[in-house]
Design goal:
mainly alpha, two-stranded antiparallel sheet, 5 helices, 2 strands, elongated, flagellum, FlgB
Length: about 130
């Protein structure tokens, strides 16, 4: 009898991958806080996550060879520009306090997903051991 890890772990590995990508985007925003004309970017986690789940479940059909499939669609997520609350004179749209808050929120959500995966693996180990 084999273990189906996709079923056992659910959506959490996909969430981890997406949270990791969002971390990189937010870190790039923070790193470029003083770069003139830099535009802060982010991705809409909810819509990209739903799209990746639909791709993984096969709800969407690939009708053309050039269309992206599940894992590629996740990595090719469309980045959105963040609208600043207060415009900068040098054209930079990074607001450090907003980016830090978004980064911290994403980090907490990443840790939650990581905990879910860890708990899932612990449950699998218990099942294998017969506990």
């Amino acid at each position: 009898m084999s273990i189906n890890f996709d079923r056992a772990l659910g959506v959490h590995p996909q969430a981890l991958t997406l949270r990791e990508k969002r971390s990189e985007i937010l870190a790039a925003n923070l790193a470029n806080a003083d770069t003139p004309d830099y535009k802060a970017r982010d991705l809409d986690f909810k819509s990209v996550f739903q799209q990746s789940l639909a791709d993984a479940s096969g709800d969407l059909r690939r009708t053309h060879q050039g269309h992206m499939t599940g894992p590629n669609a996740l990595l090719g997520a469309e980045l959105l520009y963040r609208t600043p609350y207060q415009a900068s004179l040098d054209g930079n749209t990074v607001e450090t306090n907003i980016e830090q808050a978004k980064y911290a929120e994403n980090a907490v959500q990443y840790q939650a997903s990581l905990r879910f995966v860890s708990d899932d693996f612990a449950g699998l180990v218990r099942a294998i051991k017969g506990e």
